[in-house]
Automatic annotation (TrEMBL):
It comes from the Bacteria. Belongs to the CorA metal ion transporter (MIT) (TC 1.A.35) family. Keywords: Cell membrane, Membrane, Transmembrane, Transmembrane helix, Transport. It is a multi-pass membrane protein. It comes from Actinoallomurus vinaceus. This is Magnesium transporter CorA family protein. Its main location: membrane. The chain crosses the membrane at residues 270-288, 300-320. It is found in: Cell membrane.
Length: 326
């Protein structure tokens, strides 16, 4: 994928031309019944100058479009709306969540998308538009729906993949063995990915809900159910993300409790064995004194000490074993 601008124009709901020079946009917009789309990848303020005056874009919106790490939002300006959102996807090994920023200028007859990098699935967006040509008659609302639907579906796929990762972490945690350092690292990576996903997904509720407002006159009545469906997906993704964060937090607390219980078990067994060893040690210490003792210098004295050692050791072992102390 290169960085050159991508363009399309629809006339009366039908795709008329694509990948034409961007300087022809003003000519198409001068004609009736046309809707134009322009995509720019990683432009600067000067690169957006081509359309800034043509579409009457706010300098504040242009500044937000070329800057990075803006929060997901929908701002309203005189004559246009400005949308900022993030597409996300989980790495193949499920350990890292990557996000790609995309902005959009929304006017009555034009949609201008500004990608922060080449990571956004632009081909997937075109496939969505091409897959529903019957909606093209609704102009910018049709284009905006395809964009939001692709972004939100990506959020949903990411949270579903993270859910699978959490299930695997839970299985490892209760597999009957002590959690190792790898389990701890996975839990922290999952929590970090879920926190990042929540920062991306949560503001989308307000974005889509604002678009559904009638006073904006962006979404016509026939398109409202489609945007409502996107809004429902946003709510589900948000609730799912919050639920997974709670699950990961519970798993971390469970892991800490299991480590504490395991340490207590080890200390209990060590204490039990220490007690088993302590009594014979006391006996041998007594008989090791340099003073006469019962049976001193006699064979039966040596044998009696051995018997006492064995009997007390076995008795303590049996007693502790019944109480599960060793």
């Amino acid at each position: 994928m290169d960085l050159k601008p991508r363009t399309r124009v629809w006339r009366k709901g039908r795709l008329e031309a694509e990948d034409f020079p961007a300087d022809l946009i003003s000519d198409y917009l001068a004609e009736p019944d046309t809707v134009v789309w322009l995509d720019l990848c990683a432009p600067d303020t000067e690169g957006l100058g081509l359309i800034t005056e043509e579409l009457g874009l706010s300098p504040l919106a242009v500044e937000d479009a070329v800057s990075h790490h803006e929060r997901p939002k929908l701002d309203r300006y005189d004559g246009h709306l400005f949308l900022n959102a993030y597409s996300v996807h989980l790495s193949a090994d499920g350990t890292q969540l990557d996000k790609h920023e995309i902005s959009a200028f929304i006017t009555g007859r034009a949609l201008v998308t500004v990608r922060g990098d080449k990571g956004f699935d632009l081909d997937g967006l075109l496939e969505r538009w091409d897959g529903s040509p019957d909606l093209a008659q609704y102009g910018v609302a049709y284009l905006l729906h395809g964009l939001l639907d692709l972004i939100v579906d990506g959020h949903f796929e990411a949270v579903q993949a993270l859910d699978d990762q959490v299930d695997g972490l839970e299985e490892d945690l209760f597999a009957g063995r002590m959690p190792d350092g790898g389990t701890q690292q996975r839990s922290y990576r999952l929590r970090k990915s879920l926190a990042l996903l929540r920062r991306v997904v949560l503001p989308m509720r307000e974005v889509v809900n604002t678009l559904l407002r009638r006073d904006l006159e962006i979404v016509p009545a026939p398109m409202a159910p489609y945007f409502q469906d996107v809004y429902d997906h946003v709510l589900r993704a948000t609730d799912w993300t919050d639920s997974l964060r709670d699950v990961v937090t519970s798993l971390q607390e469970t892991r800490i409790a299991m480590q504490g219980n395991y340490l207590n078990l080890v200390m209990k067994k060590l204490t039990g064995w220490a007690a088993v060893i302590a009594v014979p040690t006391a006996i041998t210490g007594f008989y090791g004194e340099n003073v006469p003792y019962p049976g001193f210098g006699k064979s039966w004295g040596f044998l009696s000490s051995i018997v006492i050692l064995v009997v007390t050791g076995v008795a303590l072992y049996i007693a502790f074993r019944k109480r599960d102390w060793i």
